[in-house]
Automatic annotation (TrEMBL):
This is Tripeptidyl-peptidase 1. Residues 1-19 form the signal peptide. GO terms for molecular function: metal ion binding; serine-type endopeptidase activity; tripeptidyl-peptidase activity. Residues 198-561 form the Peptidase S53 domain.
Length: 561
């Protein structure tokens, strides 16, 4: 409504009007809490814009990804190289001509492309950016030590460019990340359970049946964590973590490669957690860290990481990411395009895992007294494997697992349900008591796909072992490490990597996984649902997916082709 009004006003005030087009009309441009406005930037200040050029053959890409990821297809595992991906999706000559011509006519020359040719990243001044993107107005915002330049007003492009661009990055979205906290800091009561079992590599390896022999040994196997925070993992923390918790299995104590710039500053819990747990689960496997990539004030670190994947012909086989945003805060065009990027990774045999989030089903306030659950993206993308969280049933022992009430899960309002999960999800929807229908969208992609323990981890950060660290940011690298170990055994047998796992995972129908059937996750604190979201149930559920890996069984089932 508001949008139409704004456009109508623009019509009255300008003669160009009908020639402009909003690429991201539904992008939330409000300033997230915690960011302080510090004024409009000077016309000569530099800004960095990322143009997502319209790709070709996206339908073919989707179809091919389905084939290479489906174990019943003769094409299974026949992945493409980045060069082959480029031949498939690169933008048309016309698109290049129109976009370059437009940029050059405004004097923008400092642009970098990626190997797949479908992104252009350009440095320019705020003044030129505002001319290129009518409506935009660049301001500076600060949060702690971070500073970003954003436009609180919507941008448009001239209509003749609209068919050549998916979106422009570096204008609206603020950096977000999942907040990993130690429950020792937030929840005083939990302090009392002094003899509570903390999760360590040994506990994980015991629960998931990993033996000392289950470590990597294949050459050129590798895994990665991607982090988008102004906080860093410290090599000394990793070394100390391995010294304290790494006995009994062969492991590496150093990251093989850091892509991007590690700042100074303090180590972050999140950063320490990811690295320490992917390297103790996917033990003895070469590990990369992607961190705050980008040349200067990184405009959209997550987008920057996506660009890197399209600009490096050799990247690790498994990537775990603890990052997410509310679906309703993002433009559909942006999410669709990022989804294409996940397809481009999957078709290369790369597995991308996202944490499902730490707010259960989430809650979105619609109108007075009306709420709905709030799915999160990229967790809701049909082309990533989304990881939920569990706790031990008996917190004092290695027992079976139940729902961790924070485990993110639900149904997308953007992406329709993919075929691979139709049967599993419809069985769940028929078989159990559900929250009121108005809270969620049964036609959407349902997540998570799989889970692991997410409660009470020990993490070494700033040289200090910290207990009670919880969240799906913990379960995601654990599942990632196990997939890397499976890749390792596959490589030793001459098989290709697992790639995009979901079609195969859903075909297993829970075989080789510990089904989680107890507990519900949290949601809206209102009279209708009283804080309760979905509940775990036998087989797949939108709280813990298919459950948690029984490593030796999963390895055996994923090693036959
Ligand atoms: C992609 O990689 C090339 C070669 O390393 C580099 O010159 C270019 O700047 C990169 N593109 C982006 C967008 O960073
Ligand atoms: C794996 O772990 C479960 C539970 O901890 C146990 O019941 C099972 O026997 C173990 N071994 C295998 C090979 O599944
Ligand atoms: C650890 O990995 C290396 C290759 O990176 C391999 O040569 C070695 O055998 C592995 N160690 C074990 C115990 O498997
Ligand atoms: C694989 O090995 C090649 C050659 O040694 C190396 O250049 C490349 O970086 C490795 N790739 C990964 C992802 O480790
Ligand atoms: C429900 O999800 C579908 C995608 O599966 C979407 O097209 C539709 O708009 C969604 N409905 C609502 C009310 O968000």
């Amino acid at each position: 409504m508001l949008l139409l009004l704004t456009l109508a006003m623009a019509v009255l005030h300008s003669s160009l009007v009908l020639t402009v087009h909003l690429l991201e009309h539904d992008q939330d441009t409000s300033v997230p809490r915690g960011w302080v406005h510090t004024g409009r930037v000077a016309p000569s200040d530099r800004v960095q814009l990322t143009f997502a050029l319209k790709q070709q053959n996206v339908d073919r890409l989707r179809e091919l990804l389905g084939l290479v990821s489906n174990p019943d297809s003769p094409q299974y595992g026949k992945f493409l190289t980045l060069e082959e991906v480029t031949s498939l999706v690169h933008p048309s000559d016309l698109t290049h001509k129109v976009v370059w011509g437009w940029l050059q006519s405004h004097g923008v020359a400092a642009c970098h492309t990626v190997l797949t040719q479908d992104f252009l990243q350009c440095d320019t001044t705020a003044q030129v950016a505002e001319t290129l993107l009518p409506g935009s107005e660049f301001h500076r915002y600060r949060k702690g030590r971070r500073s970003v330049v954003r436009s609180p007003a919507r941008y448009s492009v001239h209509a003749d460019l609209a068919q050549h661009l998916d979106f422009v990055g570096g204008v609206h979205r603020f950096p977000t990340e999942m907040q990993t906290v130690s429950r020792a800091w937030t929840n005083g009561a939990r302090h009392e359970a002094k003899f509570h079992l903390g999760v360590t590599p040994v506990v994980l390896r015991s629960r998931y049946n990993l033996t000392a022999a289950d470590v990597g040994s294949a050459e050129n196997n590798s895994q990665a964590v991607a982090q988008f925070l102004e906080q860093f993992y410290h090599p000394a923390d990793l070394a100390e973590f391995m010294a304290i918790f790494g006995s009994g299995f062969k492991h590496m104590s150093q990251v093989a490669r850091v892509v991007g710039t590690q700042g100074g500053g303090k180590a972050g819990l999140e950063a320490s957690l990811d690295v320490e747990y992917i390297m103790s689960t996917g033990a003895n496997i070469s590990t990369w860290v992607f961190t705050n990539p980008g040349r200067h004030e990184s405009q959209e670190p997550f987008l920057q990481w996506m660009l890197l994947l399209s600009n490096m012909s050799s990247v690790p086989w498994v990537h775990t990411v603890s990052y997410g945003d509310d679906e309703d805060s993002l433009a559909a065009a942006y999410m669709m395009r990022i989804n294409n990027e996940f397809m481009k990774a999957g078709i290369r045999g790369i597995s991308i895992l996202f944490a499902s989030g730490d707010s259960g089903a989430g809650c979105r306030h619609l109108t007075k007294g009306t709420n709905a659950f709030r799915p999160s993206f990229p967790a809701s993308s049909p082309y990533v494997t989304t990881v939920g969280g569990t706790s031990f049933k008996n917190p004092f022992q290695v027992t079976y697992e139940v729902t961790d009430y924070i485990s993110g899960g639900g149904f997308s309002n953007i992406f329709p349900m993919p075929d691979y999960q139709l049967a599993a999800v419809s069985a769940y929807l028929k078989g159990t008591t559900l929250p009121p229908k108005t809270y969620f969208n049964t036609s959407g992609r349902a997540y998570p796909d799989i889970a692991a323990l997410s409660d009470n981890y020990w993490v070494v950060s700033n040289r200090v072992p910290i207990p009670w660290v919880s969240g799906t940011s913990a379960s995601t690298p654990v599942v990632g490490g196990m997939l890397s170990l499976i890749n390792d055994q596959r490589f030793l047998k001459g098989l290709p990597s697992l790639g995009f796992l979901n079609p195969r995972l859903y075909q297993l129908k829970g075989q080789a996984l510990f089904d989680v059937t107890e507990g519900c996750h949290l949601s809206c604190l209102d009279d209708q649902v009283e804080g309760k979201g979905f509940c775990a149930a036998p087989s797949w559920d939108p709280v813990t997916g298919w459950g948690t890996p029984n490593y030796p069984s999963l390895l055996a089932t994923l090693l036959d082709k």
